[in-house]
Structures are given as C-alpha cells and as structure tokens.
Design a protein that fits this description.
Layout: E1 37-48, E2 55-61, E3 64-69, E4 74-79, E5 82-90, E6 96-101, E7 105-110, E8 115-120, E9 125-131, E10 138-142, E11 145-149, E12 154-158, E13 165-170, E14 172-173, E15 176-177, E16 181-186, E17 191-195, E18 200-204, E19 211-216, H1 218-224, E20 235-240, E21 247-251, E22 256-264
Parallel strand pairs: 1-19
Antiparallel strand pairs: 1-22, 2-3, 3-4, 4-5, 6-7, 7-8, 8-9, 10-11, 11-12, 12-13, 14-15, 16-17, 17-18, 18-19, 20-21, 21-22
C-alpha cells in the first residue's frame, strides 16, 4: 500500500517479535481457534527483480509470471532470469494492486479507485473493467471465486463475472482478528496472505478464517538488508508455480525474488 503509517498488531505476546500494537483487538465470540503451525521460509535460490517495481501482486498465468506494480504502476510479464520486465502496460490514473488468474484471464485490483481490470489474450489486453466498493489490496482465484483482501481482517469472495460479493470470512488467530492482510495467493487447501509491514505470511482456512500457519519470512528481509532504503520496501508478493508447487516470494522495490521452501520452525 501507499505510505500510510500503521503498526502491525499481530503476534504480540505469542511470538515475541517486539511489535507495538497501535490498538487492541477484541477476541471474537466463541471458542479460541486451534494453535497455528509455526513455519519458516528457507531460501532455496534468489532470482533478479526490478528494484523499481512496487510489487502488489505476483501471479503465474499460462506458464508465464506476471506482476502488478503499484504507485504509477502497471501490469508486467517478468522472467526469473532478468530484472527488467519482458512486457508491460502502464495503468494511468489508478493505483494497481492485487493480481489473480483463473487460467484464462488475469484480474487486477486497484487500491482506492474501486475498479478491477480484466485482461485476456496471450499478450494481455484489457478486456473490460468492473466496479466494486471499498479498497483493493490482494486478490487470488479459488474454486470459481475471486478472493479479495482490503487491509482489514475480512477476506471477501466474489463472482468473477461481475465481481459482486458472494460471502466473506473473518480471519482470526487465537480468537483475535488479524488485519493488515495484503497480497494473497490461493492454494488448494488454504489462502496465503502477506501481513503488511511485517515479515510474516499467514496461511488461512477458507471456510473458517482460522490461521492454520504463521510463516516467518524474516530471512528474506535480512538477505536484502542494505540493498533497499525505502520504508515501503517490505515483503509483498507470493506466487505458487502450477505443477511444481514451488513458492516464490518478493517485496516492494526488492532486488530479488526468492524461491523458498517452508519448514517447521525450531522449537525454543
């Protein structure tokens, strides 16, 4: 997102990461959620990434890797072999955000412009745009639905044909609502969500909103430390490669895209 100062309110007291909450979340009614699994993202390999790319969405589509960039951003096709995009189209007058693929089309959100672009074709062209209410942060596709985050603790499910909202679920951990959900990646069993201005990714159950796993990706931030200077150069961008299941993570303005493997965290 654009530079709006908010404190991350996750994990205080549970993981001991020293975050200072900007406000106190109130536990949701009902029994506490099951304890999430604690995982770490181990770097397998680093690939080049454009340090001018304000990454908001990272998505495999028809065998190619695409990226949505924010600020005065664009849609671009990228390669793991080089930092410069292979193709791009700028979106004037809007702030592009999350990106999703249904295998045939790409769907690209905007932040506060309440407009989603639908792209089609081997070299994508804008087919149409759809309107919605509220903010757009992250987007992914799962079982015939587009899944959207808006910075709150709510994940929303939309009909791809007209983007009307079908349902929603509140994301909780230990019964506490988890907000600042940003870039999304839909897997078969759960949705992954970057937590804005943190080095954590949450794995979330589609049906209940329960956090199934907390992924510590701080090794990636350490790997780019000293190579980025902006306050907004934070972890954001998740892509799972179809067929292989390989996971790729990056950040806004980062010099690298990282292939990672998720492993259980060491027991204290």
């Amino acid at each position: 997102m654009r530079a709006v100062v908010r404190s991350v309110v996750l994990f205080v007291g549970w993981l001991g990461v020293g975050c200072t909450p900007a406000h106190h979340n109130t536990p949701d009614a009902g029994a506490p959620d099951p304890a999430p699994q604690m995982l770490v993202a181990r770097i397998v390999k680093a690939w080049p990434h454009d340090t001018g790319a304000f990454t908001e969405g990272l998505q495999f589509h028809q065998g190619q890797l695409f990226e949505s960039t924010g600020e005065e951003g664009d849609l671009r096709r990228i390669s793991l072999d080089q930092a410069a995009p292979l193709w791009s189209e700028r979106l004037e007058g809007v702030f592009p955000e999350g990106l999703a693929s249904d295998g045939q089309r790409l769907y690209q959100l905007t932040w506060r412009d309440e407009k989603m672009y639908v792209w089609s074709g081997p070299q994508p062209t804008r087919e149409r745009s759809l309107s919605y209410s509220g903010e757009g942060w992250g987007l992914c596709y799962w079982q015939g639905k587009l899944v959207r985050s808006d910075g709150s603790a709510t994940i929303r499910f939309h009909d791809p044909s007209d983007f009307h909202e079908l349902s929603s679920v509140r994301v909780t951990m230990y019964g506490v609502a988890q907000d600042q959900l940003n870039e999304l990646e839909c897997a078969d069993d759960a949705v992954y969500a970057n937590v804005w201005h943190s080095t954590y990714i949450l794995k979330i159950d589609y049906a209940t909103g329960n956090v199934l796993a907390v992924i510590d990706a701080s090794a990636l931030a350490r790997a780019v430390k000293g190579q980025v200077s902006s306050y907004e150069a934070v972890l954001n961008g998740i892509a799972l490669e179809p067929g292989t299941g390989r996971m790729f993570l990056t950040g806004k303005l980062w010099p690298s895209i990282f292939e990672v493997k998720l492993e259980p965290a060491a027991t204290p």
